[in-house]
């Protein structure tokens, strides 16, 4: 990759050309060269502001997804501490895979390393700029109540959803149907990320209930092992916020 030109590089040739032209055309040519140099300097000095505006624009474009991922990847532990480890990894991933390549392509590559903390700060601000759908509403503390809560969210999205009996559910807390598609869901109201045991259970439930889709829903995110297993077994890992907009075959799906 060629080295980005410095301010000295940019003004060198206008100064040289202006000096040479002044020998033939007099002070007017030198004045024009000086004006060009001033314009180049002002443009260069405003580059930092343009860089920040570009990062903000990229973060705002994805703020709904960033807000959801922040909720999915954060949780409060039994001691009342907010654990953000998963979200910090997700934030770095977004900055590296989405923001940095765009900045490189637009000629800001030389600023990325020096302003990395600023990029992360802007992404963080975008992630907290969107209110949670259930903000202000108390999330059910009881596991069975949380299952009913998830079923209600699916009903809102157009599914016919019902909770199963605790005995004999074979790993499915909620069974939902829409447009000929059957979905089985494990609902986990946890104070820590959900592990791969829940993924194994819902895979078994998908087979038992002859379902087309299987999902694990939680308020607290998922461990790396759970994510790896879910990707290998085609299981959706969702925050409960995503249920109210979970489409059927024509409505799309997402991880």
Automatic annotation (TrEMBL):
The keyword DNA repair does not apply. The keyword Hydrolase applies. It comes from Methylobacterium platani. GO terms for molecular function: DNA binding; restriction endodeoxyribonuclease activity. This is Restriction endonuclease. One of its GO terms (biological process) is DNA restriction-modification system. Coiled coil: none annotated. It comes from the Bacteria. Keywords: Endonuclease, Hydrolase, Membrane, Nuclease, Transmembrane, Transmembrane helix. The chain crosses the membrane at residues 12-42.
């Amino acid at each position: 990759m060629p080295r980005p030109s410095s301010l000295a590089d940019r003004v060198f040739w206008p100064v040289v050309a202006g000096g040479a032209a002044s020998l033939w055309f007099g002070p007017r040519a030198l004045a024009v060269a000086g004006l060009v140099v001033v314009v180049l300097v002002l443009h260069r000095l405003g580059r930092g502001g343009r860089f920040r505006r570009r990062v903000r624009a990229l973060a705002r474009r994805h703020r709904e997804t960033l807000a959801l991922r922040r909720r999915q990847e954060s949780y409060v532990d039994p001691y009342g501490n907010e654990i953000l480890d998963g979200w910090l990894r997700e934030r770095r991933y977004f900055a590296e895979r989405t923001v940095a390549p765009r900045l490189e392509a637009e000629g800001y590559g030389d600023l990325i390393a020096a302003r990395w903390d600023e990029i992360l700060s802007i992404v963080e601000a975008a992630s907290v700029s969107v209110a949670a759908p259930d903000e202000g509403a108390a999330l059910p503390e009881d596991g069975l109540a949380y299952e009913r809560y998830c079923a209600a969210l699916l009903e809102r999205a157009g599914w016919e959803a019902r909770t199963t009996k605790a005995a004999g559910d074979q790993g499915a807390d909620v069974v939902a149907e829409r447009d000929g598609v059957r979905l089985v869901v494990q609902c986990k109201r946890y104070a820590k990320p959900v592990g791969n045991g829940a993924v194994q259970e819902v895979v078994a439930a998908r087979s038992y209930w002859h379902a087309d889709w299987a999902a694990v829903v939680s308020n607290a995110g998922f461990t790396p092992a759970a994510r790896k297993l879910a990707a290998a077994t085609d299981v959706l890992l969702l925050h409960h916020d995503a249920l109210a907009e979970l489409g059927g075959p024509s409505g799309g799906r997402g991880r």
